[in-house]
Specification:
The chain is an all-alpha fold. Helix content is 83%, strand content 0%. It contains five helices and no strands. The longest helix is centred in the middle third of the chain and has 40 residues, at 73-112. It is elongated, with a radius of gyration of 26 Å. 14% of the residues are buried.
């Protein structure tokens, strides 16, 4: 009887000491997408966008857009270039932020309960969105980097 009790206790102990469940495929997928978005965000943060913002703010404060004069044409072009760079940067940043927020929401849902078909569909949509963003990001980033360099060299 003692041996049976000892075996039961050992078996119970082994089951209670087993490691937590490994992350599901969907959790790993979300984590991978979040990592990819973080890498894109880090690259975006490496750009000198604060300097572009400073140029834009200083030019727009002193420039009257209703009276374009030939001598002001270069200033106007620089202001427009700064505005375009800021809009471009904001659009990419907004897409990254939105996807990250949505993925974190899905991550919280999965941690609370098993992924249902709606959550799986949302994850699959995010996979497509991040894939599209990844494909565009290289071109967009290089173009943005060139535009910022051009603006800052003037």
């Amino acid at each position: 009887m003692r041996r049976i009790l000892a075996v039961i206790l050992i078996i119970f102990g082994l089951f209670s000491c087993r490691p937590d469940e490994s992350p599901t495929r969907h959790e790993r997928q979300i984590d991978s997408l979040l990592t990819e978005l973080q890498q894109m965000n880090d690259k975006m943060n490496s750009l000198n966008i604060q300097e572009v913002q400073r140029i834009h703010d200083s030019l727009s404060r002193y420039y009257d857009t209703t009276a374009v004069v030939d001598t002001m044409e270069q200033t106007w072009q620089r202001l427009e270039q700064a505005r375009n760079v800021l809009n471009w940067y904001d659009n990419i940043d907004r897409e990254i932020t939105f996807s990250r927020s949505h993925l974190r929401s899905l991550e919280r849902q999965i941690s609370k309960e098993k992924a249902d078909t709606v959550v799986i569909q949302e994850i699959n949509k995010e996979v497509q969105i991040v894939s599209g963003l990844r494909d565009r990001f290289g071109r967009e980033y290089r173009g943005l980097e060139r535009a910022i360099d051009s603006l800052l060299k003037k």
